[in-house]
Fold this protein.
Amino acid sequence: MSLRVLVVDDSMVARNMVIRTMRMAGLPLRSVLEAKDGVEGLSVLRGHSVDLAILDLNMPRMGGMELLEQLRDDEDLKHVPVVVVSTEGSATRHEAIRRRRATFVRKPFAPEALVEAIVLAIGGTDEED
């Protein structure tokens, strides 16, 4: 299985760190799409099929929680696995993310933590079989 991943974060540095981590971990990436906020991310999701979305919470125009809620309410997008990567990590926020069927990783993240969350979100990789 090769993955088409969308990375949504207003920080280009953060997006690059996530992408570099996935590549260095050897995840089977077919392509990586990027968006700088939730509005752009939602547009990308509606125009492209993706296997995973990685979202920041705090972004201009539309934050990650609002994007996650819109994904889960959309019949065509509700199946997309989501990993939330953010500095914001209150217990209340974690519970809200979990209820929306997403995985959370705190920034700054250890590469292993991000890879583990991705593998959990997508249900494993072919290499594990």
Notes: Helices lie at 12-24, 38-47, 64-73, 91-99, 111-122. The longest helix spans residues 12-24.
